[in-house]
UniProtKB/TrEMBL annotation:
Localization per record: Membrane
Assigned GO CC terms: membrane
Topology in membrane: Multi-pass membrane protein
Keyword flag Membrane: yes
Keyword annotations: Membrane, Transmembrane, Transmembrane helix
Record's keyword annotation contains Membrane: yes
Species of origin: Desulfoprunum benzoelyticum
Domain O-antigen ligase-related: 203-347
Entry protein name: O-antigen ligase-related domain-containing protein
Cited PANTHER family: LIPOPOLYSACCHARIDE BIOSYNTHESIS PROTEIN PA4999-RELATED, TEICHURONIC ACID BIOSYNTHESIS PROTEIN TUAE
UniProt xrefs under InterPro entries: O-antigen_ligase-rel_domated, WaaL-like
Stretches that traverse the bilayer: 7-28, 34-53, 65-84, 90-111, 123-142, 174-194, 200-233, 240-257, 332-355, 376-396
């Protein structure tokens, strides 16, 4: 089982991200012996004996930019610490980011070599099974009418209102846990037709719950991923069927809103944004917008070196004194403010290299995937690339976020050395 140990490490980390928050909030503090940290250590030990550098892989072409980005983070923190201008609270973040990048280096290196059809089949099955954790917890919470966890952003942040987030600290993490399952269900229904009819309730119930998270970033990411799959794949009849199913889901939601539970959730939704307007309406508008403007301004003032790794948080806290919750810019604008061009260029090149792999494959190489599991993995990578794009733009904190590590590893598992060599040869003939 698992000839490629990177697959096992990937699944262990994915499981850890789904159960991390309740264990941390109930039994410990974030940053100390969390399941996700154990998963990182286990993954490194599992894959370390199999690490081998091959410059011909897609992995090598992209990971070098991420390593250069992290080097710029370290140097920035050290230099600004010496100058007495660093955000010392970000030292733990720096260490956490480093652990995640080391994990990705080891896992991605192993995954970028041959991944068997059996392993890809196992990944697909396990992602669907693990998706039951957020799905069932979300439905239980939906009918319960209040959060399962005694903590998290809703209680600590801008109000005590309720949204569906299952076993997660925040709603976007809940959506991120369901995203691979939503896309996989859609892909398998498209590929197998009526043979995968049992996945239709899985798909529609997941979308239903995601809409009641009230996470704009997550909802747009899911819709974006489904839209690109619908545009690129499927016959006209299939697209009509999917459209009908989505319409039925929307009708169910409208009916649910008229029930006692639905009215309660609607009131919670309105309460959320009313409270946000009162708290975040500072000077020129919404606080997240204002934080983005602050980061742009700091980048313009310090375009080369930035203001230091994590220091944008200090600037935001200083300038938004009227906002009762300190925070980061929730977007990749924070990278530009903190690290300037020195750190932003390799960061952007890392993501561009990953997106190039996927969209170049869509344009030229997808027709060469002969087995259905490779095709499924490729399409999953395509949909997740759109989902992660919305996270990068509107909810990026650090590279240590689980979704920003899991998605590249799935790309590397899809495009291994064997594929790379074959695709390059065919590309030269083309």
């Amino acid at each position: 089982m698992f000839p490629n140990k990177g697959i096992l490490a990937l699944l262990i980390y994915h499981l850890a991200t789904l159960i991390n928050d309740p264990i941390v909030l109930y039994y410990g503090e974030e940053g100390f012996a969390t399941p996700r940290q154990f998963a990182i250590i286990i993954g490194i030990f599992l894959t370390a004996p199999h690490v081998k550098i091959d410059r011909n892989t897609f992995f090598y072409r992209s990971i070098k930019w991420l390593l250069l980005f992290y080097l710029s983070c370290i140097l920035s923190f050290l230099v600004f610490s010496i100058l007495g201008k660093a955000n010392d609270n970000y030292l733990l973040t720096l260490i956490t980011d480093g652990a995640n990048i080391i994990w990705l280096f080891f896992i991605g290196n192993v995954l970028s070599r041959e991944v068997t059809t059996s392993d890809k089949k196992t990944v697909i099955l396990c992602i669907l099974l693990l998706g039951l954790i957020p799905l069932l917890s979300g439905w239980y919470e939906f009918f319960l009418g209040h959060s399962l966890m005694s903590g998290g952003f809703a209680e600590k942040g801008i109000g005590s209102f309720f949204w569906v987030r299952g076993f997660h600290n925040d709603k976007i993490d809940f959506v991120s846990g369901l995203a691979p399952c939503v896309f996989l269900s859609y892909i398998l229904i498209f590929q197998n037709g009526l043979k995968s009819w049992y996945l239709i309730p899985y798909l529609l119930s997941s979308i239903f719950l995601i809409l009641f998270t009230f996470s704009i970033t997550g909802i747009l990411g899911i819709l974006g991923g489904l839209l690109i799959l619908a545009l690129y794949y499927g016959t006209f009849r299939f697209k009509i069927i999917i459209a009908i199913l989505l319409i039925l889901t929307c009708m169910t939601i409208f009916i649910a809103i008229e029930t006692e539970r639905g009215k309660f959730l609607t009131d919670q939704y309105l309460l959320k944004y009313q409270r946000q307007v009162k708290i975040e309406n500072i000077a020129s508008g919404n606080a997240r917008y204002v934080m983005g403007i602050i980061c742009i301004r700091e980048f313009i003032n310090n375009p080369i070196w930035g203001i230091g790794f994590g220091s944008h948080v200090l600037v935001i806290k200083e300038q938004l004194r009227g906002w009762n919750v300190g925070g980061n810019a929730h977007s990749i604008l924070s990278v530009a403010a903190d690290l300037g061009l020195i750190g932003s260029i390799p960061f952007v090149l890392f993501w561009m290299s990953l997106y190039r792999i996927v969209f170049l494959a869509k344009k030229k190489y997808s027709k060469y995937f002969h087995d259905q599991y490779s095709t499924t993995m490729f399409r999953l990578s395509l949909a997740l690339s759109i989902f992660v794009l919305f996270n990068l733009l509107f909810y990026f904190h650090t590279i240590g976020n689980a979704i920003f590590i899991l998605w590249p590893s799935i790309v590397y598992a899809t495009f291994n050395v064997k594929d790379c060599i074959q695709l390059n040869r065919r590309n030269r003939k083309i």
